[in-house]
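[Automated response] Your request has been received and processed.

Submitted sequence:
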Amino acid sequence: MESIDNEIIIERKADCGIIIEKGYALDVAYEHLKKKEGVSNLVKSLNPIWGEHILYFDYKNVPFVIVSAKGSSIAVNAVERIKRTGGKCITLIGTCGSTSEDIDDGTYILAKAGVRDEGTSVGYLDLRCPALADNVLTSLIKDKLLERGVNPIVGVAFTTDKRYREDSDLLKFLYEHLGVSYVDMETAAVLLVATYYNIKVSAVKISTDCAVKETKGCLKGVFDRSKDFVSFVNPKLLTALDATMDAYLEL
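Generated structure:
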């Protein structure tokens, strides 16, 4: 272990990996874990080669790692990095846009599969290969959310690189015919690449907008401006984190 400018540089083994979509959420998770019972050996590491901060910690004697990534290519890099730590399971936690106005903002959505409309995962397997979540891990996380008074839905993700070119008609069709519940930029790629490496994988997303809702004067898929995004989302991200950590202990 060494340090540069008061930053700890360390590489540690971890059994369980978590990818948090929001970059700032890494600091939120760090402050949360400092106070959480059962957490030990918590360290925020700066990896100068990767140019990123990484959280390492033990939870009830199980070693964890958390990295941050947004977008399919960066999220796949995160999968690769968790793989290097020896991670045997990965969960993606973040936000998404729902594909139906019947899905309220703040709804937790667990992915059982992902429709691949991003360009990164095809570098691993062609589009004939499905992006699937691990059923056991997903079920355990669902149970842990239910224990916390959260009633998540389980659906399919539509993952695309084209954030501002989403086709509302296509999303409505996918919702009605394939059970696609949300659109994002990471899920399908993470599911596909983790499975490629035989790593158990899941995704927990929180709906913060509706991608098919018509709005006036702003882009579709914009968070309700009458709410404060951080105070709305952060507690939900931490609930998903806690549920995931407890689920890992039962794998």
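Summary generated for your ticket: The radius of gyration is 17 Å. Residues 21 and 70 are 5 Å apart (CA to CA).
If you did not submit this request, please reply to this message.
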